[in-house]
Amino acid sequence: MTWWSGKTRIWGGSFEYWLNLDIKRPWKDKLIIIDEGELTKPVITPDDPEQVYQILVNKTSS
Length: 62
Prior knowledge:
- There is one protein chain.
- The chain is an alpha+beta fold.
- It has helices at residues 3-7, 49-60; strands at 12-13, 17-19, 32-33, 41-44.
- A hairpin with a 7-residue loop joins strand 3 (32-33) and strand 4.
């Protein structure tokens, strides 16, 4: 994540991406885009992105 790709955006987004409210986003380096097949994709910036990613993988794999 760079200054141009969402690091300075605290909340909101575009038609393609929606970023959750996170006032600490400017100090974070990673984000997770959740592609559910819809037009707008939710974007989250957890404090521990690796752990959240593993949780999502475990919950969505069969």
